[in-house]
TrEMBL record:
Keywords: Cell membrane, Membrane, Transmembrane, Transmembrane helix, Transport
Domain of life: Bacteria
Similarity field: Belongs to the binding-protein-dependent transport system permease family. OppBC subfamily.
A Pfam short name: BPD_transp_1
Protein name: ABC transporter permease
Organism per entry: Vibrio navarrensis
Chief location of this protein within or outside the cell: membrane
Gene Ontology CC: plasma membrane
Entry's Gene Ontology molecular function annotations: dipeptide transmembrane transporter activity
């Protein structure tokens, strides 16, 4: 386990450097006057001028070479300082910390909801493969998987907010505000995970050890609880690490669509304003979240699956 944690720690350091460097280069390659965009974000496009843009350039040191700016950012990163926003002048550490909580609420709600839907549906389809329910779920899964997450979100807005009037679209002050954005994310995650669970359930429920449990006299419910449920769930735990990429990507689009005040929403605004420290910081946090999720998945597998612990001992 110590080796695993050290490996993930080194991976986190590499991800921090790689994500920050790639983001810095991409923003520098974008066309347009960065100082003018930053000034426009500060004062508004109706009041910005070339003089204001020049003043911003001098104030922020944008006239320095790209290499000098990159070295300065790297030095600050080594001191765990992500700098200050070029627009609001707020410390990026504090800004992202404020937004991180909202993103975690959304991610945890979406992941929990997707598991709540995918597991029983997948097990049922694995128990009765090729049936009417299995074919219907397969069709819905293909549809949801092929549609971008923001399209799924728009469909939910039209149905539950505009047509039925059951749920709000914007806001974050009450529990019902998280329902639509988390449901949009959950449906896209469920589209793939329920198929994986269906395949695992099909194999486990037809395995020799499960059939032997039934031959011993255990009824279907007790045989499932003792010999099938955990064996079906273990591959799902590993699959959560694979889905982390889609979850983080979906958060950026869903937060922008629903004006949810998370890191993805802050990232989209920072890209438009060319606020490089915020962009680098947000991308860095998302990369580290990916590493953290995979670390948690590895630890969960290590604790829940005795076969992995035996392999480590051997």
């Amino acid at each position: 386990m110590i080796d695993l944690l050290l490996k993930r720690l080194l991976q986190a350091g590499f991800v921090a450097w790689a994500v920050g460097t790639i983001t810095f280069v991409m923003m520098k390659l974008l066309p347009g006057d960065m100082a003018y965009r930053i000034a426009a974000s500060r004062y508004g496009y109706d009041f910005v001028s070339q003089e204001a843009a020049q003043a911003v350039s001098v104030e922020l040191g944008l006239g320095r070479s790209a290499f000098e700016q990159y070295v300065a950012w790297l030095w600050e990163l080594l001191h765990l300082n992500l700098g200050h926003s070029l627009v609001s002048e707020e410390a990026v550490n504090e800004l992202l910390w404020h937004h991180l909580g909202y993103s975690l609420i959304l991610a945890i709600a979406a992941l929990a909801l997707s598991l709540f839907i995918a597991f029983p549906v997948g097990v049922y389809c694995g128990r009765y493969p090729g049936g009417r329910v299995d074919k219907m779920v397969l069709s819905l899964s293909v549809l949801l998987r092929s549609a971008p997450v923001f399209v799924v979100g728009l469909g939910l807005i039209i149905l539950f907010a505009l047509q039925l009037g059951w749920l709000p679209v914007l806001g974050f002050g009450r529990p019902e505000h998280v329902v639509l954005p988390s449901l949009a994310l959950a449906l896209t995650l469920t589209a793939l995970s329920n198929r994986m669970i269906k395949n695992e359930a099909y194999l486990v429920l037809r395995s020799a050890y499960y059939r032997f449990a039934r031959y011993k006299g255990l009824d279907e419910v007790r045989a499932y609880e003792r010999h099938a449920r955990l064996n079906i769930a273990l591959p799902l735990i590993a699959f959560i690490g694979v889905q982390a990429v889609g979850l983080i990507e979906g958060i950026v689009m869903i937060e922008s669509l629903f004006a949810w005040p998370g890191i993805g929403h802050a990232l989209s605004h920072a890209i438009f304003a060319r606020d490089i420290p915020v962009i680098q910081g947000a991308a860095l946090v998302m990369g580290l979240l990916f590493v953290a999720i995979n670390t948690a998945v590895d630890l969960a597998q290590y604790m829940l699956d005795p076969r992995i612990r035996q392999e480590k001992v051997v």
